[in-house]
């Protein structure tokens, strides 16, 4: 089969497109014909050896896919050959096929577009875990989303609204903010033109945001600590800006606020340490491929998230591989424009 391979750690230009052998499949696994794969910021890190989870070359990058089931191991009972599914994998998504752990494979509604679905598992799983389990976002609270036009950012805008919050979307251009408004943001801030801190204070009548969702990091984090409400929760999602911020702990003290790390993949390894709902059952339901809860398969794929309203990914970009538009260009775009889609059926055009 065709696949994109990282043979040595480094920038996207070092990736190669070649024939590889199909991976063997075990009794608890599922083989999937890939129709789409999500391209996320961590993919740019793992090929350079800079991500929390390390992969040893040679490997095929990519962690979320959607497609149809080609084969099912004897221990897998919730999907069958021909079913449309989404899955999270450690690596291997940028290929024509992938073998996934049965626990990570989620049945999809038949009406859900498979390329759209490929941007669903990681982005929405991370975001729901952040807002629900870690941030404890409540109806009527104010949610500030940084990098709001990116993959996880748009998911936070959508889910925050569906959870009943007032959503303030912050991004770096009018075009991005227009997309955020289209996806449900109540207010928008262009932090390339105005002070994030002052804009949030103005929009909240100097109260600040109750929950701050920050996948950007860098200098903007300092503004967040000045724009957080009493008992606010600052969610550390990632550092797309490149810099890891120093936390002004005095500001957390003065506001009775919390800085909370969000690492969804690692949390699934520690389910046994979680209390009752919202905790053990919630995390088991949303934690993903390594969780050991009974509800971990299929729940995300309903697109309902226990709030009884539908939600679908809003894709910032959709890429088709060709000689004129290689993967390296896709991975080198600004990190806040993540979650590009890569139709595997078009790999042959490279």
Label this structure with key terms.
six-stranded antiparallel beta sheet, 11 helices, single chain, elongated, Quinone Oxidoreductase, Chain A, domain 1, 350 residues, six-stranded parallel beta sheet, alpha/beta, 2 domains, Rossmann fold
CATH class of the largest domain: Alpha Beta
Find the CATH topology of the largest domain. Quinone Oxidoreductase, Chain A, domain 1
| Pattern of helices and strands | EEEHEEEEHHEHEHEHEHEHEHHHE
Low-confidence stretches: 271-310, 316-326, 333-350
* Fraction in beta strands: 15-25%
Number of strands: 14
Overall form: elongated
Oligomer: single chain
Number of helices: 11
Main pleated-sheet profile: 6 strands, antiparallel
Q: For the residues shown, what is the average pLDDT?
A: 79
Alpha-beta classification: alpha/beta
CATH superfamily of the largest domain: Medium-chain alcohol dehydrogenases, catalytic domain
Question: Any guess at the CATH architecture of the largest domain?
Answer: Alpha-Beta Complex
Distance between the termini: 14 Å
Radius of gyration: 20 Å
| The number of domains | 2
Helix content: 10-25%
